[in-house]
Amino acid sequence: MADVLAARLSRRQTLRGGMSVTAAALLGGVGLTACSSDDDNSSAPAPAPTPAPAPTPATPPKLGFTAVAKNKNDLVTVPEGYQVSILHALGDPMHWGDESWKDDGSESADSYQRRIGDGHDGMYYFGLSDAGAYQAERSDRGLLCVNHEYVVAPYGLHPAGRSAGAARNAAEVEKEIYAHGISVAEVRRETAGTSMVRGSRFNRRVTSATTMDFTGPARGAALLATKFSAGGTQTRGTNNNCANGYTPWGTYLTCEENFLNVISRAAGDDAKRSAKEVVGLNRYGLPQNRKSPYLWETAGTADLFARWDSSVVGASAADDYRNTINTFGWVVEIDPFAPDSVPAKRTALGRFNHEGAWPAPAVVGKPIVMYQGDDARNEYIYKFVSKAVWDAADVGKGLVAGAKYLDEGTLYVAKFNADGSGEWLELTYGKNGLDATNAAYPFADQGDVVTHARLAADKLGATKMDRPEWGAVNPLNSEVYMTLTNNSNRVATTATPTGSQLKPDAANPRYYEDMKGTTSQKGNPNGHIIRWREDAASVTKFAWDIYLFGAQADAAADVNLSGLTAVNDFSSPDGLYFDKRGMLWVQTDDGAYTDVTNCMMLAAVPGKVGDGGAANAAGGTSTIKGANATADTLRRFLVGPKECEITGIAMTPDNKTLFFNVQHPGEEGTPDWAAKTYGSNWPASQTDATAKKRPRSATVVVTRKDGGEIGV
Ligand code: FEO
Ligand code: CA
Ligand code: CA
Ligand code: CA
């Protein structure tokens, strides 16, 4: 009823911009407080203040909050003097005309093309000018792009979880397809707080069914040919969008990670493929006779479903979806300021389990540099360097600028040497043996190299890492940080590795046992954060050390190598973000220390590469570590609700509003739908300890009660 009324009010009031207090009151509820209607079409928009840009300081600020204690509450716990509110959660309508979230799974599949998706993950805030363009320093009005990584089974979308049966229910699958992808939402800071502007003309969903262009060296390749685009120039959908990036010209980058969740391949398919194709499919985790966990292809013969089966069934690649697998794993560029623009899969940046793509600060006259990680055990860290050099006049030029900087350039993969030096190895067809003579996988051209970047990196002997997650570049000195979340495949230096097991090396040095209650966890259960400084004179050289080792405070000294204490001990770093002041934010996606605490977010003021020294890691491998953490340099800022991952970080340019995401609260619980008991009741539990509501992924807004800057 409120939605219908509000839709009427909205239509009537669009002309004068602004929504009545009555309508706002009717719309009370999570994520829908203080809504404003879009005023871009109004004849007299209210003038908005344009704050002066915050100057970048030479040194980072001091941490100025009381550390939050580890806990297992079903709440977001922030320091004293801070407050939180929910910006949006799974299923919230972004436009007028769709009903508000009902907490019963009754929302239609179709409506998820206009609702906030599931599994909030990476995100970025872009300031929005009065004229509707990118305004980097604007803090009170912006576009928040959020990844919706995946559908958190069994909660949320369906009336009572996923229906049983070998063949999936078509309506459920359709809803899941639309609940993946990206949301772009206008956000406004007003007296009552920061909220999503329902009905904004910028509000948009990009889903696992949205049409996209391929650009760069693999565009038009036979490897990308499908029934949908025989020429391999287009595809549909982005999926398992994990972390993200952004560009200096004001576009969003979203990265495709665990796309194997939705792609199957038939038994006997190998016999219908070339030997080379089979090598590529296996290297990317898709052996024949492999069923995806989500089984989308079983929902029917309609193209919306059939295309998730990456098997040979037609006469040629133009007749089936054998190449679906090759259409995922890319960096996708979206122009949030152009809601009708066609997203671009930028193939020059390579294809793998793309966690994210993080830019170095743009320098006029220098190339654009993007750092990237492949989040799987024993995979690699990559760097892309554009051919074109940065021209600040390209700010605001959207996908045209994207084509200029991201479609031509050089892709590298990292090798970390034991002495603290490192090398970027070039992944260019015709160089370093990356051609048809490569025995393991004969490369045809650069399109083949980027599509099979892992196989190219194998050939060059890059360093296999402990699951590269997020990266971030320090704005004060351009040093690059990347989380290595954990790795259960590291084995003792005395062991004989089998299968995908690896012995430790200097850059992934720890092997130890950590107990989770009575459960033994071996390898590198708590993860670490590596960092490097590029050589000023050479694009292919760098120096590295390990900034921080995750550990519980009472672990042995050769495990707790960074000297963590009760105010800052953590496990499995994942999200990472430098704000403009040079304060580093670290988030966890942990399953190792969760017997003691829910996942968390910490604030840090890091030093620099070389501020520590040599160390011996648990298991006997020598490494190079940064200076030990102290309560002054690393402090726990918040702890999340039950069974969640804390991920996604964005800060307004004035450093006064922090956004972060809670993903999959209560994911381990077995729901009792009739009794409405769930593993978590967050976000409802944030304000009502007795709430019996479904857990939902959501974006949280953090502010200081006194309106000051965050963290200081
Ligand atoms: Fe989706 Fe690598 O976390
Ligand atoms: Ca433990
Ligand atoms: Ca992640
Ligand atoms: Ca993770």
UniProtKB/TrEMBL annotation:
InterPro entries in the record: PhoX, TAT_signal
Protein name: PhoX family protein
Sequence segments annotated as region (Disordered): 36-61
Domain of life where this protein originates: Bacteria
Pfam families: PhoX
PROSITE patterns hit by this protein: TAT (PS51318)
Organism name: Pelomonas dachongensis
Pro residues compositional bias, start-end: 46-60
